[in-house]
Amino acid sequence: MSLNGKVIWLTGASSGIGEALAYELARKKVKIILSARRKEELERVKGNCHPLAQPEIKLLPFDLAEAGNLQLIAEAAIQLFGHVDVLINNGGIAQRSLAKDTLVNVDRKIMEVDFFGTVSLTKYLLPHFLKRKTGHYVVISSAMGHIGTPYRSAYAAAKHALHGFFDSLRAELWKESRQLFVTIICPGWVRTSITLNAMTGDGSRLNHMDETTQHGLNPRLVARRIIGAIERRKNEVYIGGWKEVTAIYIKRYFPGMFARIIRTAKVR
User: Which residues of the chain have a pLDDT value below 50?
Assistant: First the structure.
């Protein structure tokens, strides 16, 4: 599938994988809606895109945690270009803390943003996709959508939940139209600021770059592979180093072995 002429709505576009996706998408003949909480950061990202692409880029700032506003946000996104072809659900927050040290309010916050916020946008856009009989949901999950490691209990829970929801949705949409698609992207370690902004057990920012993230994949490379997966309408793809991808397969086929490995593995 060519993305030429498509309207692509990208959340979490102000940093990390989302920012890299914005730059790579701007190199194609597409219309882009950039969303994140901070308007000034969205303006910076737009300003860094190729000048010829900027007239086809619109900004729609909002907070995924503000559930009461998301229906209006989805309606506003549709109005910006008249329709939406692809929604890339990339917005979210990470977590770095032991389960025993994590307040339940922090668990709820992460689920509200990473799961319920994503699901809400998806559902509010669904009537639009169904009416047009075409549309593509892209979900930026994580290797944590398949495995769970120490210090990421709430984050892994939210990503696991996304897989359950979107696998079910994909099966339902197949019965509605052969032009409705769901692609789940599972990145491993990517060199972004995700851990700097990760929530700790009391809700404060970690403000520290962990070693695995620091040595992760270049986000522009990851963005290009994500776009390739969208164009090929893949159901699910793993993008990461050999350790993360191998861990997914070990968990699937040898869960007992994985349980023994992960309790002693260096994951911070």
Answer: none
Q: Which of 137, 151, 155, 238 is catalytic?
A: 155
**Res 267: pLDDT:** 67
Report whether 4 contacts 25 (CB < 8 A).
no
Supply the CATH number for residue 233's domain.
3.40.50.720
| 155 belongs to the catalytic site | yes
- Alpha-helical segments (H) within the chain: 16-25, 39-48, 70-81, 104-110, 118-132, 153-176, 211-214, 219-231, 242-253, 255-262
208-219: b (≥16 Cβ within 10 Å) or e:
eebebbeebbeb
Single-letter code of the amino acid located at 200:
T
Instruction: Look at residue 1 and tell me if it is in a domain.
Output: no
pLDDT score, position 101:
97
pLDDT of residue 20: 97
Query: Domain count of the chain?
Result: 1
Return the bridge partners of 232, or none: none
CA separation for the pair 173, 62 (Å, rounded): 27
- The per-residue pLDDT for 51 is 92
